[in-house]
From TrEMBL:
Keywords: Cytoplasm, Exonuclease, Hydrolase, Nuclease. Belongs to the XseA family. Residues 144-351 form the Exonuclease VII large subunit C-terminal domain. This is Exodeoxyribonuclease 7 large subunit. Residues 29-120 form the OB-fold nucleic acid binding domain. CDD domains: ExoVII_LU_OBF.
Amino acid sequence: MTTFEPAPGQVPPADAVHPGSSTPEAPTSVSRLNETIRDFVQKWGAVWVEGEITSWNVRGGNVFGRLKDLSSDASLSFRLWSSTRQRIPADLKSGDHVVACVKSEFYVKTGDFSFIVSGMKHVGLGEQLAQLERLRVKLRTEGLFDASRKRPLPFLPHRIGLITGERSDAEKDVHRNAELRWPAVSFRTVHVAVQGERCAPETIAALQTLDADPDVDVIVIARGGGDPQTLLGFSDEKLLRAVAAASTPVVSAIGHENDHPLLDDVADLRASTPTDAAKRIVPDVAEQRALVRQLRSRAGSRLTQRVGHDIAQLQQLRSRPVLRDPETMLTTRAQEVWFHASRGRDIVDRRVDAAMRTTAELRASLRALSPAATLSRGYAIAHLADGVIVRDAAQAPAGAGVTVTVGRGSFTAESQGETAESAAAGLPEGAI
């Protein structure tokens, strides 16, 4: 068997089990071994230890809890009797960073080892709470808490995705209150662990499953209340970033009004309780029916008022003289039209007469100036065979054929050449 080995520099009890003092043929008893361990442990005395409270369960006025090392996963269990509890701060709870005066105790009958707390006080925020504050600042700086990135919830979701614990009160509250408000509401529920190490990864997987479902219009993450330690999974950084990256609006319904995991800040809507979430994601059918009746009444009143107003305007227009007797306007304007038409005819006639006289004068002037008038007075025009007008007698030598045009017609002749008589008589040059 395994024997008790004292630490270096320590003296074991007189009846302690020493190496080699027991054999398979002569083993020691369990009680003797436990007594040896108890006697050794009792010599340790009290010691002050620093750590973080990770469990704080009150039973019958006594506290049974665990204290975790700040820099490793090491932890110890402790017991705090009700008499001691009256002498320590009353606000101690899970997540607090404390120093405690503990004395080791080994129970011979059961072989259990524990520490009895004789004093405990705050040191500051627990390491886990300090980490949460640092994460809160980091995510706020990145903009994950900004209201501008929050997605609006649909007025009436076709299907609600619910992530919660199996057979939990939170699931019952969400279903019951949502169905009371809108009986036709539909759910797709995924059960996950809502505390412990499995909480964050299972919630992330459920979120991704529901986010990929095109029928799910809004996702609710819900659980009942609890101490800060049990709600730590809903402040996990991976979960928070998965919620921020989801395309479907996410509602956080964790704990009670005073509980505030970081999921509340990243989610598109924070509900104070699962019941509050149900009330905020679906409308109340009774309220909506009352609203429809009210809107119908208002629409009917406005329509009646508008029709009455339009009828009054129409009657007012019909009472005007121009619409009451439309022919009056035509009769009064007929004389004006006749006057303008008559005046127009007179103006046109005068202008036509003036134009005719001007045309006659121009025609007379053209006639007086035209070659035909000159020819009618006895003059003639002589043309050579190539059509050149004879202007000089020298142009038509003797024997040259010429065409002579007179007032009526033309004839051909043969030139006799220039004569002295024609020049002396003052006849035009080129005359025959």
